[in-house]
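[job 0412] stage=fold_complex status=start
inputs:
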Amino acid sequence: MARSGRIYRLLLLAYPREFRRRFGGEMVQAFGDSCREARRRGGATGLVMVWVRTVPDLAFTAFAERSRRMRERWLFMLVPLALGFGIAYVDSSPGWDAAGVSAAAVLGVSGLFAVLYPARPWLWALAVGTWIPVFGIATESNYPSLLALAFSFAGAYAGVLLRRKFVPVG
Amino acid sequence: MSMKRDIAGRRKPREVLPLSPAVLNILLALAEEERHGYGIMREVEERTGGRTRMGPGTLYGSIKRMLAEGLIEESDERPDPAMDDQRRRYYRITDFGRRVAGAEAERLSGLVETARARKLLGGRGTSLPEGV
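[job 0412] stage=fold_complex status=done
writing structure:
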């Protein structure tokens, strides 16, 4: 029975981390209770039947939770992508001559997203900081514009440090 | 004011209908009393004569969404602390959850009436679809 519990706990890795943290303990407990009851009623066969029902349930619901999470994440990614695009659009306009303001905007926006969602700072850095080099290289072969990525990465990782300093984990 | 809210500004039950069989079963289990996860699984299995068995994945996936929708909430009270594991979490139905369950029951009842009027129920009386 304890082995079943250990295997089930391991299989819970199929769920997204947030789901596991919130419900994993309760799921292991409910599964353990089911196993004990099935064993009491039907012996080893009862235990096998619990596994036969549990594996497809776990596979379908883990897939559903992961795909839901992925959809939310990709929809949310549109926000920093749009902000990064906006900064790059302004930065590439003919009258614009304030590179420092563009750099500060990239740094600030990347940092803000990393403070809010510190799990993947590199993703925010790329979403916000890629557009200036894309515009710069595509329109003027401006390779130094790649420096914008340094600002976005610096902002994102500074955001993570701020988050850790002011919002302790756990 | 949103059309999805009533005069008091509360959400309308119809907004979250139809319910999945798992969600309706959980609401029915909690309409009677507060229960923990395994308690809900047991109640559903016993009430349906073993025809509906919810696995932990279905149960907690539904609970997650029901908490977000405000259909159920976590309970701080422990019905029988002496007999219970402190790590268990109990859930209870909210007023909104109760109204939603009632609205869904009425909706299903209407469907059953239609089925009966069209002689689809045969001689089996008021049997509900499996899983309900």
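[job 0412] summary: Chain A touches chain B through 22 residues (CB under 8 Å).
[job 0412] exit 0
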